[in-house]
């Protein structure tokens, strides 16, 4: 079985404009359909009016966050809402507790449940005690450190 390949900036722009969004692991071309997507840093968020949005925006975004997008599980996330394209770097994880903890650390309003294709408000995703336990785990601390080191 062949692995997916990277989409060009032009291809990504077309999918965003036609489908209303995308979650794509840019380094491999894989588009996850299960798990929970969370933007682990507000510094990666960009907003562009849909009427002005071009492949050049995608290229510039990928260049700006290349180091972060090269990490396993990191995805270029995009959605169109009310005429605005929202871009971010999202991490797709398998469990809601890790996603909620990352979201809480980054002051994110919500996480995205990919397999149900819906947003879940961070404060409704799990309990505070579960998030606290997750934030104290070595696995979580290593993950946060890796993300922070890869940010420009």
Protein described:
By secondary structure, the protein is α+β, with helices and mostly antiparallel strands. The chain is 39% helix and 24% strand. Strands 1, 2, 3, 4, 5, 6 and 7 form a seven-stranded antiparallel beta sheet that branches. A hairpin with a 2-residue loop joins strand 4 (74-81) and strand 5.
Q: Helix share of residues? A: 25-40%
Q: Distance N terminus to C terminus?
A: 35 Å
DSSP summary: helix tally:
7
Instruction: Give me the Rg, rounded.
Output: 15 Å
Q: What's the helix and strand layout?
A:
Blueprint: H1 9-19, E1 21-24, E2 36-38, E3 46-49, H2 55-64, H3 66-69, E4 74-81, E5 84-93, H4 96-105, E6 110-113, E7 118-121, H5 122-125, H6 128-135, H7 138-150
Antiparallel strand pairs: 1-4, 2-5, 2-6, 3-5, 4-5, 6-7
Helix pairs in contact: 1-2, 4-6
Keyphrases for this structure?
152 residues, alpha+beta, seven-stranded antiparallel beta sheet, 39% helix
What's a quick, concise take on this entry?
With 152 residues, this protein is of the alpha+beta class. The protein has helices at residues 9-19, 55-64, 66-69, 96-105, 122-125, 128-135, 138-150, and strands spanning 21-24, 36-38, 46-49, 74-81, 84-93, 110-113, 118-121. Strands 1, 2, 3, 4, 5, 6 and 7 form a seven-stranded antiparallel sheet that branches.
